[in-house]
Specification:
There is one protein chain. This protein is of the alpha+beta class. It has one domain. It is built from 4 helices and 5 strands. Strands 1, 2, 3, 4 and 5 form a 5-stranded mixed sheet that branches. Helix 2 crosses helix 4 and helix 3 runs antiparallel to helix 4. It is elongated, with a radius of gyration of 26 Å.
Length: 187
C-alpha cells in the first residue's frame, strides 16, 4: 500500500475502514449466523451404554479422528492411580492434537502401542476403560452450515463397580449365566 499512494488515497482508506467496521459490527447479530456454539446432534443421540475396551490399541482405533473428549474417573483413588489416569488423558490429548496431521501408519501404530501400555497398567491396578461416541454440531459464526464434531466420552472405573449387561442393555444377573433346568440336556 505504501507504494500505491495514488491508488489508496486517504478517502479510499477511510471507506475501506468504514466497510470493515460495519462488517465487524454485523457479526453475531440477527442478520448474521449468531455466536459459535457446540450442540448435540439431534439426528445422532449418544448410546447409553459404554463400550468396554480391554486393549489400548482397540481404544486408539476407536478414538482416532475425534475432535474432543470428555474424561471421567473416580475421585476416591490413590495418588498413584490418579497420576496414571492423568498421564493417560494427557497423552490422549497430545495425540488427538496431532493425529489430524499424522499421515504415517507407523505413527498411529506407535500411538496404539503406547495406549496398550496404559491399559495394561490400568488393568493391573484394577480399573477398566469404557467409552462412547457423542456427535455434536458446531453452529454459528461465519458459516451458515453446521459442522459435525465427533466427541468421545471416556470413563475409567474400578472393576469392582462394573455391572455386566446384555446386548439390549438390561442388567445380567448371576442366574442368567447358568442354564435353567429345562434348558439342560438330559441323558
Amino acid at each position: 500500500m505504501d507504494d500505491q499512494v495514488g491508488h489508496y488515497t486517504i478517502k479510499r482508506l477511510k471507506k475501506i475502514k468504514r466497510a470493515h467496521e460495519e462488517w465487524i459490527s454485523s457479526l453475531g447479530t440477527e442478520g448474521g449466523n449468531g455466536p459459535v456454539r457446540l450442540i448435540p446432534d439431534p439426528t445422532r443421540p449418544p448410546k447409553k451404554i459404554l463400550r468396554l475396551f480391554l486393549k489400548g490399541s482397540d481404544f486408539w482405533y476407536f478414538f482416532d479422528g475425534a475432535t474432543a473428549f470428555y474424561p471421567s474417573w473416580p475421585g476416591d483413588i490413590s495418588d498413584e492411580h490418579a497420576d496414571l489416569i492423568a498421564r493417560l488423558f494427557d497423552d490422549l490429548r497430545d495425540w488427538m492434537d496431532v493425529c489430524s496431521d499424522i499421515d504415517s501408519f507407523q505413527a498411529k501404530r506407535d500411538a496404539a502401542k503406547a495406549f496398550d501400555g496404559y491399559f495394561k497398567e490400568l488393568a493391573q491396578a484394577g480399573f477398566f476403560v469404557g467409552a462412547r461416541e457423542r456427535f455434536m454440531l458446531l453452529i454459528g459464526g461465519v458459516s451458515s452450515d453446521p459442522s459435525s464434531w465427533r466427541t468421545i466420552d471416556i470413563e475409567i472405573q474400578p472393576v469392582s463397580h462394573a455391572q455386566v449387561v446384555r446386548a439390549d442393555g438390561k442388567p445380567l444377573q448371576f442366574g442368567d449365566l447358568t442354564p435353567k433346568k429345562d434348558e439342560r440336556e438330559t441323558d
